[in-house]
Each structure stands twice: as structure tokens, then as C-alpha cells.
Amino acid sequence: MPVEAKVERKTAFATGFRDTIDTLMATIQALYLSDEIPWVIGYSGGKDSTATLQLVWHAVAALPKEQRQKPVHVISTDTLVENPIVAMWVEHTLHKIRDASDEQEMPIQAHRLTPDPTDSFWVNLIGKGYPAPRPKFRWCTSRLKINPSNRFINDLVRQNGEAILVLGTRKAESVCRSANMARYERTSTRELLSTHGDLDRSWVFTPIGDWSNDDVWQYLMQVKNPWGYRNKDLLGMYQGATEDGECPLVVDTSTPSCGDSRFGCYVCTMVEQDKSMEAMIRNDHEKEWMTPLMEFRNHYLDIKVDRQHRDFRKMNGSLMVHNGRLVHGPYKQYYRETLLRELLEAQQRVRDAAYRGEAPEIVKDFNSITLEELDEIRRVWVVEKHEVEDRLPGIYRDVTGEEYPGRAFNQSSTFGSEEMRLLTEVCREQGDEEGLHFELVRELLHIEDRHRTMARRAGLYKALDKALERSAFESEAEAEQFALRRQEAVNAARDMIKEIHPNCFDTLIEEG
User: Fold this and answer.
1) Contact 208, 216 (CB under 8 A)
2) How far apart are CA 135 and CA 269, in angstroms?
3) C-alpha to C-alpha distance for 341 and 344, rounded to whole angstroms
4) Which residues contact 336 (CB under 8 A, 6 or more apart)?
5) Exposed, middle or buried: residue 414 (CB in 10 Å: 0-12, 13-18, 19+)?
6) What are the sequence ranges of the domains in the chain?
7) How far is residue 281's CA from residue 287's CA, in Å, rounded to a whole number?
8) Spatial CA neighbour of 369 closest among 124, 63, 160
9) pLDDT, one tens digit for every residue, the chain (512 residues)
């Protein structure tokens, strides 16, 4: 058989590794000294952001102390549902960065950013009932990652007028990424910097934009980490996250690279499975403690079969039809309670593994959900969803064996769990199989109870009308028939108008 010729991979180090790095360091130094605009480095703990931060650190450290005055902010956004191994790695790294920056008298400041409790994954999923993210309803990215970082950057811009974002994005990551980077470079008015598509008065600098995966690893393996971490440990983490457990440094196309390993949220439902977490568990028995989290994600966040657990109405109570059937909305109460219970169970199993010596000591205090999130979920359930039974403290107590430690809840109500149990029985006796009558009466009672002590009962009738309108159907089947008839009537009216005025809708679109 003919021997296949090896094709050398493209590298950014064609002129020599040391010369390339020295030239890039000089470029970074010149840009750093060219103005007073503060820098913001996006740091995820992965290879690209590590290489970027390391380059900037070495470049700035090589300057005389009196020239190291402009602040460099390192921001890391923790979505609170990150792969736990990576999350602990990043948190520990941020501590190391702070300590090393102080010791070396560097202008580098590390910040851990998190989403507001009202924006968190669990508050939206378990509290509000948003179905797990999917291609046509990807509600997570902006809330968990973009908003916290943009808020930090916008605050910095307000204080300083501008900001320069130093990012580890690379053109080799994808065709789409390469096209976007090239487009913003063309619209820039400053050398080395590109414009930011969404953030006003913010520039983007991508020092490793032309590097390949292997260039990144070559740099990390040959240049010492300046804040005291071993880059070989980072390589080991990537290695553990690959399916076959291998992560070689490559020199030609015959050798695969580990650079495509992806770390992210373990609850992500935009992919079939979290291959990196599964590989970590499979390749290293010391990481088997994450199994309960993986099992929770795979069993309870399966978007292919979750329709049965969702309300036939949208979040605002409206009906939507697609392909002849209702588009289901948020998770029902029983499933949201199930999700919370099972998430706390997974958390407890992880902690128990640590107490048995089967997981690191630090995992004894592992939290799959924060107390602030639990408090907000409780508020949403009782105040916004009128679930006056207030079941969250009981669920917490059942799973953990401890009393709920959250903040005192001031929502006083005439009705509690026992009253709701009796109401449920009465409604079932009247044929309320789907619980729709119970939900309506409970909501009406809660609305009236909340307005009872007000001096002015403004908004009472509007709230009552909204509740009645939302619950105007005896069953889901009746609601679907109504929605289909309404859609047929709308389509018929549209067809009639088009017959009389063929270009009517085109004109309206143009005028709009």
C-alpha cells in the first residue's frame, strides 16, 4: 500500500518560536503603553485564555515598575453550573493570580463574576419553569455569561471612557469565528484593535488570533506560568476530558490534537451529552464523584421527552399552535419540585462521597445550588406562581435532614399546605383531573389575600381578570381545540383580505 505523505500543520511560529514570542511581547508592551485605557482579559481557565493571560503577564512584567501602572482586570464568569472540576480549578487560579500579582507588584486584578440570582440557571429553570435550553429557546447564554461580563465592562467604560478587551479567541476555532474576527478587524480605526460588535466604546485585542491549537499547547508547555500554576496540570485536565484519554502535542495531520476538548456547563442541553464530563469520570476514578450530577442532567433535563412535564400555556398564559398542536410552555409545579428534590439529592450524594473518602476534601461543602438561588426560587413559587403551600423548605429538610437556612420569608397567608390539600380534594371530586380548577381557585384566593390588607386595592380586579382569562379552559384538549379554531379563523380572514387586496401585507411590512 502507498505510504500517505505527512502534511505539516500551519504554525504561527514559522520564523522560530523564540523570535515569534519576543515580537508578540514587544507588540503587547507597545499597545499597553500607548494610552491610559484599562485592559480587561477574559479568563475561563482553558488553554486559550491561559495562554493569553500568560503572554500579557510576561510582557507587562518585563516593563520597568514605574511603567506598570495601567490596570489589567482579569474577569472570569462562573455560571454556577460549570463543570465542577473546571470551576474549582478557575477559583483556585484566581486566588493564585491575586497573590502572585501582589507579590510581583503587578497591576493585575482578578474578578470572579456570577449572574444575578434572578438570572441564574436554576432560578429560571426550577423557579420560573423555563424548559431546559434548546436551539429555538436558548435563554441561558445571555443571562449566565454575557450579562455579568458586559455589566463589568460597561461599568469600567463609564468610569474610564473606554476599555480594551484582551481575548483568547482564535480564527482556527471555527469558520464562523474567523469570519467574525475578520469583519470586526475591517471596521476598526485602530491598529491591532478591532471593534466590539455589542459593547460601545470597547476595543478588542486578540494576541493569539492566528495561532493553532498546537501553537497554544507548545507555548504553554515551553513557557513557565507566571502565577505559579503548572501548565502540565492544565494539559492533564484536557487529557482527562478527551474520549480516549490522550492529548498529544502534534506536529503533523496524522496525530490528533486535544485542543478541541470543550469545558462548559454540565447542564448544557444544546448538546446530546457532556462528553468532557463523561470522559473525566471514565478516565479517572478520582472524578467519579461527579456521576450524580451527570445522571441528573441526563435523566431530568432531556429535552426530547420533557413536553409531558410542561404547561400547555405559555409563560404569560397565552396559547400558541405549531404544526397542528399546542406549543407547551413552562414546567408544571410537580416537575419543578421534582427537579429541586433531585438536584439536592445529587448534591447530597456528592457530599457523601467526600465523607466516605471517595472525593476530595473540598467537595464536602459542594453546592449544586446556592442559598441565594433557593431563596429566589421560593419567592417566585409563592409570590409569582401563587403556590402558597411554600414547599421548598420541606423539600430541603427532607433531602438534607436539616432545617432550611434561608432568609425569613415575610409572605403571610391565610392559606397553607393543609388548606390547599383540602382544596385539591374538593376540586378532584368535581372532576378536576388536570388540576386546572385547583390552580385557578388557589390563585384567586391568593390574589384576594394579598390585596386584603391594602389601603387601596388598586389592581385587584385586573389581577383577577388575568387569572380567569388564563384558566378559561376545562382541559388541555379543550384549549387546543379552541386555539386551532382561532388559527383557522385568522388564516381564513388573512386569505380573504389577500383576495381583495393582494399586496396588502407586503405594503404593511414595507411601511412597518
Assistant:
1) yes
2) 9
3) 5
4) 126, 127, 129, 381
5) exposed
6) 17-240, 284-367, 417-472, 477-511
7) 5
8) 124
9) 444 444 456 899 999 999 999 999 999 999 999 999 999 999 999 899 999 999 999 999 999 999 999 999 999 999 999 999 989 999 999 999 999 999 999 999 999 999 999 999 999 999 999 999 998 899 999 999 999 999 999 999 999 999 999 999 887 655 555 555 555 455 544 678 988 878 888 999 999 999 999 999 999 999 999 999 999 988 888 877 765 444 433 333 333 344 444 577 999 998 888 888 888 898 888 899 999 999 999 999 999 999 999 999 999 899 999 999 999 999 999 999 999 999 999 999 999 999 999 999 999 999 999 999 999 999 999 999 999 999 999 999 999 999 999 988 776 666 777 888 899 999 999 888 899 989 889 888 888 887 776 766 678 888 888 888 888 888 999 989 998 999 888 888 877 877 777 776 565 555 55
Q: How far apart are CA 31 and CA 33, in angstroms?
A: 5
178 contacts 166 by C-beta, under 8 angstroms: no
Using a 10 angstrom Cβ sphere, with 0-12 exposed, 13-18 middle and 19 or more buried, the burial of residue 186 is exposed
Q: Which of 43, 147, 55 is nearest to 92 (CA)?
A: 43
| Residues 293/368, Cβ–Cβ less than 8 Å | yes
Task: Return d(Cα 397, Cα 238) in angstroms, integer.
Answer: 38
Q: List the one residue out of 294, 290, 280 whose CA is nearest residue 245.
A: 280
59 contacts 184 by C-beta, under 8 angstroms: no
Closest among 135, 132, 137, 168 to 40, alpha carbons compared: 168
The CATH number given to 17-240 is: 3.40.50.620
